[in-house]
Automatic annotation (TrEMBL):
Pfam families attached to this UniProt entry: Glyco_transf_22
Sequence segments annotated as region (Disordered): 1-25
Annotated transmembrane regions: 163-188, 208-228, 240-261, 297-318, 325-341, 347-368, 389-409
InterPro entries: GPI_mannosylTrfase (IPR005599)
Similarity section: Belongs to the glycosyltransferase 22 family.
MF GO annotations: alpha-1,2-mannosyltransferase activity
An example Gene Ontology CC term for this record: endoplasmic reticulum membrane
Swiss-Prot/TrEMBL keywords: Endoplasmic reticulum, Glycosyltransferase, Membrane, Transferase, Transmembrane, Transmembrane helix
Biased composition (Polar residues): 1-16
Source organism per UniProt: Cucurbita moschata (Winter crookneck squash)
Gene that specifies this protein: LOC111443205
The name this protein goes by in its record: Mannosyltransferase
Length: 544
């Protein structure tokens, strides 16, 4: 049985200044067995794990190079001694903290004799699904702590059905693990919870530890914790203890561990957060990969991520009156908007917060507001789900499920498929060497091939002189001239991989060098930021 109660002003005053807002809370009467089963911790965790495992198996497309090149490729090098390190690792702006779990996974697969193409491809995302499930679990707990179990159920529904969370959350991006740690940390922050507990100091230490870990993985996570930390500083009575006995020691401990880890892996003392700040913020190095207008997150990026949940999230923000969480969303979007280089994944950690508000709005559909703005108690708790709630659910499922499945199974899958095929061919020793005549980092690399064979891709390391085009850009400007010049000094590869858009001007060149088409893989129905790359084509040397 579920009721909606308005939190009293007394409770609000005892909660450390938490925003006064209506809540959905359980009544004192015994709950039904079905409801108890749903809220059971173990069953909830199993539900999240099962969903994310299926989610991981359904991810068969390419989204962002960092999923492979900044995580799995580095992990493969740690575990097996070979793998490509991009220029970021040579300049010391990446920490080994994030690739390490995947390196341990690879090592375990090798020990068990399971480092086959299938396991090398699927295992990393299955490991990530465990992290994601933990994120979903704490997301539910956070929603329950703020609004009650009924809202938490609808918040979790929003999280699991949102197309972008389905598409991105299980990928081996540092942003995915950052999002998990953000959700865990927010759950423990006293300034975020509805009311403090006796163990609030212990909870705050856990919150600080998780926040520090997220900063170790992605230094830009500090944007989130600067805001939350200031909220805690202004609401806490033991401010000196918070700063000097909790924040400083915990932050120093995590920073010291990552500092020593990077010293061990780099072979020299490297302070990654400072190098990251210098390149991405102070020198605007990220702008090399493209820039967007300041309002992009508000008008295109974050709105596309929320998609059809937008009206529900806005309604939930207004009706819940959780202005601190709303402020966190606006703060993170605003700070990231100041940077020229923008990507969807940069604001992934705050997407669950917006979806939590959507859950609040969906839950409210069952209990409409009375004219005075208060939530009315249900007179018939066993009444059927209102038609408007059914329509809302159908609308959200009809818009998000096709989108999520299309982006996960269809759009930009060719670059994954071609490497999966080459990995299987390499087991049979049919592959000797590979040349990728395509934009840099367009495919996975050694972490998928899992054979120490010569491979070459077109370089795109940022130049000190930005007016000088990099190798990848020169190829795209004139594929034939570049390939003709490149072939003068090449070691002829056994296989060449390229997009259909670049294949057209190179067909005669490939034929003249004794290459023939071996296989063609569908890639995309529409272009993203270049010419339509409808398929990925694999050419093989005929006289090898």
């Amino acid at each position: 049985m579920v009721q909606i109660r308005q939190r009293s002003s007394v409770a609000a005053s005892n909660s450390g200044g938490i925003d006064d807002s209506p809540e959905f809370l359980p009544s004192e009467k015994p709950k039904s067995k079905t409801y108890d089963d749903f809220c059971s911790t173990n069953k909830l965790l199993v539900l999240c794990l099962a969903f994310r495992f299926a989610n991981a198996l359904l991810l068969q497309t390419y989204f962002n190079p960092d999923e492979h090149w900044q995580a799995l490729e580095v992990a493969h090098r740690i575990a097996f001694g070979y793998g490509h390190l991009t220029w970021e690792w040579k300049r010391g702006i990446r920490s080994y903290f994030h690739p390490l779990p995947f390196a341990c996974l690879y090592k375990l697969l090798a020990i068990l004799g399971l480092d086959t193409p299938l396991f090398m491809i699927k295992a990393p995302r299955l490991l990530e699904s465990i992290f994601s499930a933990a994120g979903d679990f704490y997301f539910y707990k956070l929603s329950s702590a703020l609004f009650g179990d009924y809202v938490a159920k609808w918040a979790l529904f929003s999280q699991l059905t949102n197309w972008f969370m389905f598409f991105c959350f299980n990928r081996t991006l540092s942003n995915s693990l950052e999002t998990v740690l953000t959700l865990v940390s927010l759950y423990y922050w006293p300034c975020i919870r509805v009311a403090p507990t006796r163990s609030s100091k212990v909870s705050r230490k856990m919150a600080l530890f998780m926040a520090a870990l997220s900063c170790a993985i992605r230094p830009t996570s500090a944007i989130t914790w600067l805001y939350v930390g200031m909220l805690e500083l202004f609401s806490a009575r033991d401010r000196l203890r918070f700063i000097f006995l909790e924040a400083a020691p915990i932050g120093s401990l995590v920073l010291g561990i990552t500092f020593l880890l990077d010293r061990l892996m780099y072979g020299s003392w490297v302070f990654v957060p400072l190098n990251f700040l210098k390149f991405n913020v102070l020198s605007s190095g990220g702008d090399f990969y493209g820039t967007h207008k300041w309002h992009w997150y508000f008008t295109q990026g974050f709105t596309a991520m929320l998609f059809s949940f937008i009206p529900f999230s806005i309604s939930g923000i207004i009706s819940s009156k959780k202005w601190k969480l709303t402020g966190l969303v606006i703060w993170v979007l605003g700070v990231h908007s100041l940077l020229g280089h923008k990507e969807f994944r940069f604001v992934l950690p705050i997407l669950p917060i917006a979806l939590m508000f959507s859950g609040y709005s969906l839950a409210a559909l069952r209990y409409p507001a009375s004219p005075n703005g208060k939530r009315e108690k249900s007179r018939d708790v066993h009444s059927k789900c209102p038609m408007k709630m059914k329509l809302a659910v159908i609308f959200l499922l009809a818009t998000n499920i096709p989108m999520g499945l299309y982006m996960s199974l269809v759009h930009q899958r060719g670059t994954e498929d071609v490497m999966n095929h080459l990995a299987k061919e390499a087991v049979s020793e049919k592959v000797k060497s590979i040349l990728f005549l395509m934009p840099c980092h367009s495919t996975p690399y050694y972490s998928t091939l899992h054979r120490n064979l010569p491979m070459r891709f077109l370089d795109c390391t940022p130049s000190e002189e930005r007016e000088i085009p990099v190798e990848s850009d020169r190829f795209l400007t004139n594929p034939l001239d570049f390939a003709s010049e490149f072939a003068k000094n090449w070691t002829v590869p056994s296989h060449i991989v390229l997009f259909e858009s670049e294949e057209r001007p190179l067909k005669d060149f490939l034929k003249s060098h004794s290459f023939k088409e071996d296989k063609r893989f569908f890639h995309a129905h529409f272009k993203v930021d270049r010419d339509l790359q409808s398929s990925v084509v694999l050419y093989v040397l005929t006289n090898q």
